[in-house]
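Each field is set out as follows.
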Amino acid sequence: MLMGTEREAIVEYCIKLIERGLTKGTGGNISIFDREKKLMAISPSGLDYYKTKPEDVVVLDLAGNVADGHRKPSSEYQLHRVFYEKRSDINSVVHCHSMFSAVLSCLRWPIPASHYMIALAGKDVRCAEYATFGTQELADHAYEAMKDRNAVLLANHGLLAASADLANAFNIAEEIEFCAEIYYRSKCVGEPVILSDEEMALMAQKFSTYGKV
């Protein structure tokens, strides 16, 4: 099976999306990119994660042509592809509909450095301009808003996180959802104190090794 190990990992982490409370139903999608083969394995469209098997995961080239698999690929494959085409540091993308990130995305608020763990994504997390799901426009907006970052909010939609591998992309998604919840709850009772750019630069240095999984 083409990209068998990657397809097994995607099945495992799609279940984790549900178990860790990062999405509901069949919402969200996960992909892994093989730079040598120039192929992307991505979760299928609209299939129950608990019923998804490795052979249901679809393998595409960057032109969107199916190289292996009998299912329809996620409608958001362009949202993943844009990062593999334009960011050499990214080999896995996790997109989820986690509650607090989705709330902030509907407000179209970025997530500032109200908690130091935001440094996993950068000095903050921007909110991309709105575009219809599954479109190249959404992919382009996400790419622009995630420059120099490893996560982005998609307006009125959810969260996207990315890294060099799936374990770290998933970890970033989980930690940024935590930061989104902290920011939301802090705003409910007062005005959060935002860490300085200098402190976040220091965090960036520390997070070059700390926080990796």
